[in-house]
Structures are given as C-alpha cells and as structure tokens.
Amino acid sequence: MLKLAYVGGLGMMAGPAATHLNQGGAVNVLRVQDRGTRGGSRDQYRADWKTHGAELVPSLDALVGQGDLDGVVVCAGKNGDDIQIISELTQRLKAVSTKRSFILHLSTVSPDFAEAAFQFCTGQHVDYINYPLTGGPLGALLGGADPKGMLILASGDEPIYQRLLPMLQRLGHPKYFGPSPSAGAVTKLIGHHMVFNGLNGIATAAAIHADCFNQGKLGGEAQSDYLSFLNGGAGG
C-alpha cells in the first residue's frame, strides 16, 4: 500500500480524494497540509481526511515527516505558482527519505515548468511526474466510478504510472501519454486551446447576431433559437 501526503488536499480538485480513497486499500494518506484557511468546502474535506485516517499538519516540514512516505501529491496552484512548494518538498524528501520517493504534481503548469521540475527533482534523487487534471470540481467530486469523472493526463516514468494506477482510477479516468515529463502538460494545453478558442467563437457569434439581428441585445429567446439552429450545422 502506498503511503502518501497531500499538499492542496483541502481544495476543490483534491479534497474529494479523501472520500474516493476510503473505498478500498489503494493508498494510505498519512498527512494533509492544513494552513488553517476557513470557508467553502474546506471543513467538510477536513472531516473527510480525518475519517480516512490522515493527520492535518500546518507545514511542509511536518508533512514530509521522517521518511515514512512513498511520495507527496501536490494539487495547489497553476502556471508555475508551485515552484517554491516543489523545490522545498524535493529538498526535504531527499534529506529524510531512505528510499527514492516521488512528487505527483496534479496542478496545471506549462510544459517548460514540467520539464524544469523533472530535471531539478531528478538531480536531487526524487522522481517528479506531472499529471494535470481536467473536468472541474464536479468531475473531481464524481471520481473514477462515474463516466463523467475528471480526466487525469499522465506522462513520464511508466513504472510509476503503473504503480499509481489503482489510486488514479479511484480519483478519475487516467490516460498515459508517454515517457516525456511534459506530455501531460502539453495535452492540457491542447485542451485549453480547444475550450477557450471555442468560447471565443461562440462569444463572437453572439455579438454578431446581436448587432445584425437582435437590435444590439445579447441573449434572449430569439438569440438562443438562432444559435441552436446553427448548432446543427458546421458551426456546431
């Protein structure tokens, strides 16, 4: 059984893991960082992690402990915000671990960040893998038992992926994209282009329709009917 700790375990994307991982013996989460922020769903996730058996700790030092972890899961930021977390965790894991440990980074970061983090961690004898998530808070809540659960975009060291697969399948729907440390991040980037360029096109279509057919008004039944009709053609 894998022994893990979580950074970001009280957030909307990682918090539901407390419940999903209670459904069998895939992993044992020993500790979860709790910086004391209140509100939202955090109190429920605190209770869920305690039910799982995890200890809530305030610092990364306490989180890493004294070498009893196989790895640390990080799901805390986007686009390089996690650089200090990854750096500190790597050095602490190297200092206390008696075996080679890993950092499973679930945050959305750039491909360059994933490559740089891989090189840095490897130099410190810690394995780094970046598996971005997509599907939003609802997808995270539904988990791997539901077809609409979140996607997990995995890449990097394949033996680590196979080792983590039973856990990943509880959290969502994982797919492995090859040995490149940045392949998951590239896949997430492709998804962003598909989503946000599509939204840009929809917004432009709505604006043109409002200007030409709807007396300058955005929204309403007439616009909805118009765009729904077009959705059946190439514009869909």
Give short descriptive properties of this protein.
six-stranded parallel sheet; alpha/beta; elongated; single chain; 236 residues; 9 helices
Give a written overview of the molecule:
This protein has nine helices and nine strands. It starts with a strand and ends in a 6-residue tail after the last helix. The chain has helices at residues 17-20, 42-52, 60-64, 83-96, 111-123, 136-142, 158-171, 183-213, 221-230; strands at 2-7, 27-33, 55-57, 71-74, 102-105, 127-130, 133-134, 151-154, 173-176. The mean pLDDT is 93. By secondary structure, the protein is an alpha/beta fold. Helix 4 links the parallel strand 4 (71-74) and strand 5. Helices cover 46% and strands 16% of the residues. The protein is elongated, with a radius of gyration of 21 Å. The chain has a six-stranded parallel beta sheet with strand order 3-2-1-4-5-6, with helices on both faces. Strands 7-8-9 form a three-stranded mixed beta sheet.
In short:
The protein is of the alpha/beta class. The chain contains 9 helices and 9 strands.
Distance between the termini: 47 Å
Determine the number of helices (DSSP H or I, runs of at least 4 residues): 9
Largest sheet: 6 strands, parallel
The total beta strand count reads 9
- Indicate the mean pLDDT: 93
Counting helices, strands and paired strands, the structural category is alpha/beta
Helical proportion, percent range: 40-55%
* Unreliable segments of 5+ consecutive residues: none
Query: How would the global form be characterised?
Result: elongated
Which strand order spans the largest sheet, edge to edge or round the barrel?
Answer: 3-2-1-4-5-6
Strand content bin: 15-25%
